[in-house]
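Researcher: Last one for today. Full complex below.
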Amino acid sequence: MARPREFDTKAAIESICDQFWSDGYESTGIADLEEATGLARARLYAAFGSKQGMLCEAIDFYLDTRIDVVFQRVDNSGIDGVASFFRRFAMMNAENPELSKMGCLVVNSMIEFGRSDPEVAVRSERYRERVRGAFRSALAREAEDGGLKGDLESLTELAFMMLMGLYVSVKGGAPLEEIERLCGIAIGVVESWRAGAGVYAVDGA
Amino acid sequence: MARPREFDTKAAIESICDQFWSDGYESTGIADLEEATGLARARLYAAFGSKQGMLCEAIDFYLDTRIDVVFQRVDNSGIDGVASFFRRFAMMNAENPELSKMGCLVVNSMIEFGRSDPEVAVRSERYRERVRGAFRSALAREAEDGGLKGDLESLTELAFMMLMGLYVSVKGGAPLEEIERLCGIAIGVVESWRAGAGVYAVDGA
DNA sequence: AGTGTTGTTTACCAATCGGTAAATTATCTA
DNA sequence: TAGATAATTTACCGATTGGTAAACAACACT
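Model: Here's the assembly. Have a good evening.
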């Protein structure tokens, strides 16, 4: 019924997403978002309402295109799936350290905002449940096959906690070898959950 | 040889420390620091040189007065000491949730800066080595007594990774019960390292 | 063709950012 | 007591912050 939008909203959101992901919310100014999208600020505000609105769109986009696709590979997979997730984390870290250092947009945002922004908080909650759900279903599947040693819920939480710990080291700028080491530990811990594994929770390397 | 300083530098640093700890570096303006210390900005700049200088002083203060005293209780303690550390973490979370949500100034700073600020990076490194050193020496002590099951270095890293994971949940504004649950898992994991413990890495609660 | 509606553009806003120059005040030394 | 030195105060700086008002342009519908 009126003039159609001249730019691709999805593409703009992706650019905004990458910008927030790379530099964080507070550190990116509207000028950065203008440069990233090639759009004048007034256009951005007309489309998204506010900087916070842009972040929400970015997070939703990120959840749909980055998070979900990764954890679909974990869903209902088994111990192998969980261990492979951490293996891929390590590979990404080794192959593309700069991208890796950006961490996860949702984790970054939830650390930056805590509970202070309800819109962000609800998305953080969704993220945490998505990750936990993937780990839980994978381990549950393993348990059904009788291959899991230990309590399902506890193991799920531990996998989650280790992943969050990895993100701290990654964002904190820990040396690559340290990240690699921590990934190795996480993988070892997950592998130790196999019913057939030895008695030690964590073997050396 | 000249006019003496009228204010207590240590007290000022403590106020600055609390401010950065509570709100983060970027989110606290010089105006906040003025209010927190009761000192005009020019006085702060005369004393500390720059906002970044204030952060460094704050971190050093924090390391000396908050971190060191906590991890001295862990040094050379044994599994009990490590488990008790996580128990205290849980207690703090339950008794003073608001203070607890502030997380750790050094972890917060290292997440905010990554490797971008060398002065902060060197302090992050110092922090990580302090924490790891405490865990390592505690577990080494336990190993000497033959009470440790598993590889010393790996267990040290796992304890560290779990702690960092806890900080993410804390700063991310996770519900209190979630933090409590995660602490319980961490404690269970540490307890499972006892030579006499059962075969399961993580028992249900 | 005219009109209402929406997107786009340009220019701008007050507020805040980190930081400082200069004048003033207080102390110590000679 | 005079002068040197350093702390304090006041007022200010240019740059940047997130956000917007208003003029203009393009489309759909009657």
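The longest helix of chain A spans residues 118-144. Chain A touches chain B through 52 residues (CB under 8 Å).
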